[in-house]
């Protein structure tokens, strides 16, 4: 909340003419000042300075409606403190009446007004060390929505009481103030959104750097990841272990958005670190599960498949934690699936995962996330495993890197609509 000190008022720039002309000039001046500022703090300061000076009020506040709590929140104040410590009900006091009636309300003398209004101000005065005598309150209405109120207290006269002309004037002044506050508030939100978007883009770039780069054509592994948005909940990694062996891991984090992407980054970092010293898929995936279980948010999990390809022995070692069964195509173009799997990572700590050895001669294995098989066309039909296999068959003779790009491009060019991250890793036996 902002507390302002008075400064040289804008009113000094207005010629002394008839009061009606002066008021019109004030409104024009407000519009001019507001037109050149989209800074919310500056707009609030300007609005309160003009209003409190013209009305000769002792104090003035701006309360905006918090749509989440359904309460009034004081976001700016002149000459009255501590209001930011309280959230006021939308039905309380004159502010509630102004919102309900959608017009400026005047209480000539709080001490003689209706009991509920008097009690409200007596209670608020005790909390803020302020004595309220008279009140003006105008709703802030912009684009037909009431976004809050301007609240003025005590005229600087011997009687300290506002009159009807004051009410009419505040009603006039509240219109340009409401539009300006709405525009400044929207500008602030857009700036914050852009800032968040920039941060998201940075996260996306960091995530890309965590993925393995495709190697020369003779390398038996290749991968591709197309995020549905800027950040991804998918991950893959592969590396040369030496002696004709190659390690790889593919993962998919539950959910979408920043939360999922952060968990993905954690899982990928853990994998990159632990895989340098642990060459057993079962042992590695068990270790990853224990680490992820320590900090994972409730309801989230990670599916992951880890493997080692031994090109000398023509076999694969695989361990699967709830991931999609990979598709294997043999040299004759026949397809099969590796179905064995344990529970996803992050659900049950100390789960012991099993390791499986399969023959892998003159074959290709495709490890993927469900974004590829569950992608839908405009009619709502999924691509499915069979559709995916058709694309694999179509481009099976292409180098692995080119093959994956062709599969993804052709799926998307066939009017399938991407709503989830698309990730494929292929392992080709030599």
Topology:
Elements: E1 2-4, H1 19-35, H2 40-55, E2 57-66, E3 71-78, E4 87-89, H3 93-101, E5 105-107, H4 115-128, E6 135-142, E7 145-155, H5 164-210, E8 221-226, E9 234-242, E10 245-253, H6 258-274, H7 281-295, E11 302-310, E12 315-321, E13 327-329, E14 335-337, E15 356-359, E16 364-368, H8 370-373, H9 384-394, H10 400-413, E17 422-428
Parallel strand pairs: 1-3
Antiparallel strand pairs: 2-3, 2-7, 3-4, 5-6, 6-7, 8-17, 9-10, 10-11, 11-12, 12-15, 13-14, 13-16, 16-17
Helix pairs in contact: 1-2, 1-5, 2-5, 5-6, 6-7
Q: What's the short story on this structure?
A:
With 430 residues, the chain is of the alpha+beta class. It is built from ten helices and 17 strands. The strands form three sheets. Strands 1, 2, 3, 4, 5, 6 and 7 form a seven-stranded mixed β-sheet that branches. The chain has a five-stranded antiparallel β-sheet with strand order 8-17-16-13-14. A five-stranded antiparallel β-sheet has the order 9-10-11-12-15, covered by helices on one side.
Treating each run of at least 4 consecutive H or I residues as one helix, how many helices? 10
CA-to-CA gap between the ends?
Answer: 67 Å
The CATH architecture name of the largest domain reads: 4-Layer Sandwich
Derived from helix and strand composition plus strand pairing, the structural class reads alpha+beta
Tell me about the largest β-sheet.
7 strands, mixed
Helix percentage range: 25-40%
CATH superfamily of the largest domain: PPM-type phosphatase domain
CATH class of the largest domain: Alpha Beta
Number of strands: 17
CATH topology of the largest domain: Phosphatase 2c, domain 1
Rg from Cα: 33 Å
Strand percent estimate:
25-35%
Which blocks of ≥5 consecutive residues have pLDDT under 50? 5-9, 11-16
Mean pLDDT: 83
Overall morphology = elongated
Order of helical and strand elements: EHHEEEHEHEEHEEEHHEEEEEEHHHE
Domain count: the total is 2
């Amino acid at each position: 909340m902002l507390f302002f000190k008075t400064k040289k008022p804008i009113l000094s720039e207005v010629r002394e003419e008839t009061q009606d002309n002066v008021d019109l000039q004030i409104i024009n001046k407000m519009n001019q000042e507001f037109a050149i500022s989209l800074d919310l703090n500056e707009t609030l300061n300007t609005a309160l300075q003009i209003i409190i000076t013209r009305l000769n009020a002792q104090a003035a506040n701006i309360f905006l409606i918090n749509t989440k709590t359904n309460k009034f929140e004081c976001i700016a104040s002149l000459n009255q403190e501590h209001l930011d410590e309280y959230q006021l009900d939308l039905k309380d006091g004159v502010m509630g009446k102004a919102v309900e009636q959608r017009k400026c309300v005047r209480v000539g003398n709080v001490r003689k007004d209706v009991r509920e209004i008097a009690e409200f101000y007596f209670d608020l005065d005790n909390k803020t060390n302020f004595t309220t005598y008279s009140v003006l309150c105008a709703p802030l209405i912009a684009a037909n929505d009431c976004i809050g109120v301007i609240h003025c207290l005590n005229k600087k006269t011997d009687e300290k009481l506002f009159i009807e002309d004051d009410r009419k004037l505040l009603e006039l002044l509240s219109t340009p103030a409401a539009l300006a506050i709405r525009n400044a508030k929207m500008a602030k939100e857009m700036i914050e959104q852009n800032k968040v978007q920039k941060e998201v883009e940075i996260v996306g770039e960091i995530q890309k750097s965590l993925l393995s780069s495709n190697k020369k054509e003779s390398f038996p592994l290749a991968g591709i990841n197309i995020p549905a948005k800027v950040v991804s909940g998918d991950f893959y990694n592969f590396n040369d272990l030496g002696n004709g062996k190659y390690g790889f891991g593919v993962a998919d984090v539950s959910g979408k958005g920043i939360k999922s992407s952060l968990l993905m980054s954690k899982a990928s970092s853990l994998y990159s670190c632990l895989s340098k010293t642990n060459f057993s898929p079962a042992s590695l995936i068990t270790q990853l599960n224990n680490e992820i279980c320590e900090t994972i948010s409730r309801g989230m999990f990670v599916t992951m498949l880890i493997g080692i390809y031994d090109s000398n022995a023509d076999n694969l070692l695989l361990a699967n934690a709830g991931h999609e069964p990979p598709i294997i195509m043999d040299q004759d173009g026949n397809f099969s699936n590796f179905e064995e799997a344990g529970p996803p990572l992050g659900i049950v700590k100390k789960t012991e995962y099993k390791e499986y050895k399969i023959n892998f001669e003159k074959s290709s294995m495709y490890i993927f996330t469900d974004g590829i098989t569950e992608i839908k066309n405009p009619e709502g039909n999924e691509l499915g495993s069979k559709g995916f296999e058709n694309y694999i068959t179509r481009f099976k003779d292409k180098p692995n890197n080119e093959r994956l790009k062709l599969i993804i491009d052709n799926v998307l060019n066939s009017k399938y609509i991407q709503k989830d991250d698309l990730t494929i890793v292929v392992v080709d036996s030599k």
